[in-house]
Design goal:
The complex is a heterodimer of chains A (93) and B (532). By secondary structure, chain A is mainly α. Helices cover 74% and strands 0% of the residues of chain A. Chain A has two domains: 1-60; 61-93. Chain A has helices at residues 6-27, 36-55, 63-89. In chain A, helix 1 runs antiparallel to helix 2. Chain A is flat and about 60 Å long. Chain B is mainly alpha-helical and 532 residues long. Chain B has helices at 18-22, 27-55, 66-85, 88-102, 110-129, 145-148, 153-180, 193-225, 238-272, 279-292, 308-336, 345-368, 370-376, 380-404, 406-410, 416-442, 457-482, 527-531. The chains are: A mainly alpha (93), B mainly alpha (532). At the A-B interface, helix 3 of A face helix 9 and helix 11 of B. Copper (II) ion binds at residues 250, 253, 296, 299-300 of chain B.
């Protein structure tokens, strides 16, 4: 592994995750209207990304592993994009 | 545990009794157990379908009640799809063949492989437990009916959820094995095409299955806790269920067919004594199918109230996915061209595959065309189309594999002549069952209907008579396979691919020494073959 002292990194990451959890809870106190869900998802995505990069070692992996890690995100995008295209272009008759 | 280092023992002799099988990590034994399991489930679901067909001998009630009818087609569809054809060829022949073909002693995670099998057993059991209050939704579990019906939807969907993990873990195992365990010299462009097909299948299993798992959890959440994902009264959207369901289930039709295509690519060159034509085109078209198949799911939803714009988009992309499939068909035909074709039983099943699957595929294009589908959707045309693909394609491919690798798997030979008679019965019976259904469909006979208008009677009866021929064919095939006639050589077909360059049945550890590969897998009619 690349890092000289992995335990220190892991501890820092853990602290960051705790901090983001705190932000999630704090953000829930406010009503952002339509933005409520996007904001919660954004914070959660940052957390997931940090976990994948460090705890799951994605940061140190070769490009093939990156392809396998990124492609499902693209599929998720397709699932949402096509379903949303349907839902937002329906016309009542 | 049995002694895994006894190299002289073949995998069938290495250990006896239930424990030596149920706790084995040998990929060959796991492959054989999957083959048995899918075989049993196939018979079970086939019996359900024969009852369905018998009911249609006359309009109105013939032998079973309307509710029993609904239960039977649901049972038939769910068992055929989730217990038979999705694990199907990949779990059985994939397990048996991939390590042999890539020159490895096992898959990369043998224990995980056993674990997948156990999960498969558990999931199947859960699904079948639902028979206590059998489900009547059809295998697609569409909302809102799947929320409202009093039958055991939760058990069935939970069973499918559990089965999904088996599929995902097997997929991961195969992908990593093919990346990490290929023998020296076995470059990607020498890899047998069955492995390429299994690789593409595994990608689909890993990438698509989680979506159906989550979808069914949402359904369970809605049924059990009254959450409102799909109920418009609670702000949900019933069509969203169909989006999620088909996001998995369209790629899943390629999980069903790709491994069978891989088998055809192995069988055709051996019995044509010619190198496969267009190796790269066949290999890459498997990957192309795996990628494009994620973009067409909405063609199952043209009449669901889905928006006009997205209908057009899905229809156009559907036509694109036919291209890589057609590429394969042309390459198989070209492989046979001017070859020295031998019509063995295995080859007959493969040839029938090309013929029947092409009919299934082309009628799929009718259904992908928007205007035609509005008329044909949810009619018997669809039933005929999908059975031409799933039986004419996958099941014929599976039967081809069962005959082709029979000597390798069991170390014995079967009676070729009897096998060809069984093939003839199955081929004729199949077409009598399903061809009339195309006509019924165009005339407006809806699918999943217990009753029908009197003018449909003749065609329905014809279709039912067909199942009797088909059933006799199945039984005769099994009889032939269960009565071997003498021991098999290591390589009775003079195949050049790796799995035939070892004793039949293979030794427990496959290769005494990991081989070094120096040529393509399809060197027929060339210098290499003449030296061998
Ligand atoms: C063994 C011979 C088979 C026969 C005679 C047969 C017959 C039928 C019939 C008559 C139906 C229509 C029921 C209706 O709409 O009222 C049906 C539906 C279906 N079959 Fe088969 N089938 C056979 C094999 C298979 C195989 C091998 C598969 C797939 C692996 C399969 C998958 C399905 C599915 C998914 C449905 C739809 C069920 C539903 O509407 O929910 N069948 N079959
Ligand atoms: Cu589809």
């Amino acid at each position: 592994m690349a890092s000289a002292n992995p335990y220190k990194t892991y501890l820092n990451i853990w602290l960051l995750l705790m901090f983001l959890t705190f932000i999630t809870v704090y953000a829930a106190e406010f009503d952002f209207g339509a933005l409520n869900v996007p904001i919660a998802l954004l914070i959660a995505s940052v957390k997931a990304g940090v976990v994948a990069l460090h705890f799951m070692h994605l940061k140190y992996e070769d490009s093939m592993t990156w392809v396998f890690a990124i492609y499902p995100l693209f599929l998720l995008f397709l699932l949402i994009a096509f379903s949303a295209t349907d839902i937002f272009t329906r016309v009542a008759n | 545990m049995t002694d895994h280092h006894d190299f002289d023992k073949n995998y069938l002799e290495n250990g006896k009794g239930f424990k030596s099988w149920f706790f084995t990590v040998d990929h060959k034994r796991l492959g054989v157990m999957y083959l048995w399991a899918i075989g049993v489930f196939f018979v079970l679901a086939a019996i359900a379908s024969f009852l369905i067909r018998f009911e249609h001998l006359s309009p109105g009630q013939t032998i079973i009640s309307a509710q029993t009818y609904n239960v039977l087609f649901t049972l038939h569809g769910a068992v055929m799809v989730f217990l038979f054809i999705v694990p199907g060829v990949a779990a059985s022949f994939g397990n048996f063949l991939i390590p042999l073909m890539i020159g490895a002693r096992d898959v990369i995670f043998p224990k995980l492989n056993l674990y997948s099998f156990w999960i498969y057993c558990a999931g199947s059991l859960i699904l079948l437990l639902s028979l206590a209050a059998p489900v009547d939704t059809g295998w697609t579990f569409y909302t809102p009916y799947s929320i409202d019906t009093g039958t055991n939807v939760i058990l069935v969907t939970f069973g499918v959820f559990v089965l999904g993990f088996s599929s995902i873990l097997t997929g991961i195992n195969f992908i990593v094995s093919m990346h990490k365990l290929r023998a020296p010299g076995l470059t990607w462009d020498r890899l047998p095409l069955f492995c390429w097909a299994a690789y593409a299948t595994s990608l689909l299993q890993v990438l698509a299955t989680p979506v159906v798992g989550i979808t069914l959890l949402l359904l369970i959440g809605e049924r059990y806790f009254g959450l409102g994902f799909f109920d418009p009264a609670k702000g949900g959207d019933p069509v969203l269920f169909q989006h999620f369901f088909w996001f998995y289930s369209h790629p899943a039709v390629y999980i069903m067919i790709l491994p069978a295509m891989g088998i055809i690519s192995e069988v055709i060159p051996v019995f044509s004594r010619k190198p496969i034509f267009g190796y790269k085109a066949i290999a890459y078209s498997s990957l192309a199918i795996a990628l494009i198949s994620f973009l067409v799911w909405g063609h199952h939803m043209f009449t669901s109230g889905q928006s006009k714009l997205i209908n057009i988009i899905f229809s156009v992309i559907t036509f694109a996915v036919a291209v890589p499939t057609a590429i394969k068909v042309f390459n198989w035909l070209w492989t046979m061209y001017k070859g020295s074709v031998e019509l063995s039983a295995a080859m007959l099943y493969s040839l029938a595959f090309i013929f029947l699957f092409t009919i299934g595929g082309l009628t799929g294009l009718f259904l992908g065309a928007l205007a035609a589908d509005v008329h044909l959707h949810d009619t018997y045309f669809v039933v005929a189309h999908m059975h031409y693909v799933m039986i004419g394609g996958t099941v014929f491919g599976l039967f081809s594999a069962i005959h082709f690798w029979y000597p390798k798997m069991w170390g014995k030979m079967f009676d070729e002549f009897k096998a060809k008679i069984a093939f003839t019965l199955i081929f004729i019976g199949f077409n009598i069952v399903f061809f009339p259904q195309f006509i019924l469909g165009t005339q407006g006979m809806p699918r999943r209907y217990f009753n029908y208008a009197p003018e449909f009677e003749t065609l329905h009866q014809l279709s039912t008579y067909g199942t009797w021929i088909l059933g006799v064919g199945f039984i005769y095939m099994l009889y032939t396979l269960f009565k071997p006639v003498g021991a098999a050589d290591a390589n009775p077909y003079r195949s050049v691919s790796l799995e035939w360059q070892m004793p039949s049945p293979p030794p427990t550890l496959n290769f005494k020494e990991i081989p070094t590969v120096t040529t393509s897998t399809y060197d027929y009619g060339t210098k290499v073959e003449q030296e061998a």
